[in-house]
Recover the amino acids of this structure.
């Protein structure tokens, strides 16, 4: 694939991410709105990293892209689960399921 194909795909991914970030509107809850916007933001990072794996060649950048995919995918799953609980009015305690701790070490 060409560099032009890469840039077109990256641009399309960014547009999709921005639409997703604004799709939910405002709920009145900073926690809910934060998660609702961060999920498409992280999904955008995963898509960008995927495109790098298709087009990029540098082994260290490719490794970083793989780590981004793994970490962000884990965080997306946790945020989705937490968002469901918050929207349902379930407990909001910091140690409640699912844990949203960092996935990338110190």
């Amino acid at each position: 694939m060409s560099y032009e194909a890469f840039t077109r795909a990256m641009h399309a991914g960014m547009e999709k991410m921005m639409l997703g970030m604004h799709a939910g509107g405002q709920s009145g809850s900073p926690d809910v709105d934060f998660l609702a916007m961060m999920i498409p933001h992280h999904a955008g990072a995963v898509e960008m990293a995927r495109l790098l794996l298709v087009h990029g060649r540098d082994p260290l950048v490719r490794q970083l892209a793989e780590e981004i995919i793994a970490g962000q995918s884990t965080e997306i799953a946790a945020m989705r689960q937490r968002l469901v609980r918050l929207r349902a009015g379930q407990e909001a305690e910091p140690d409640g399921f699912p844990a949203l701790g960092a996935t990338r070490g110190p």
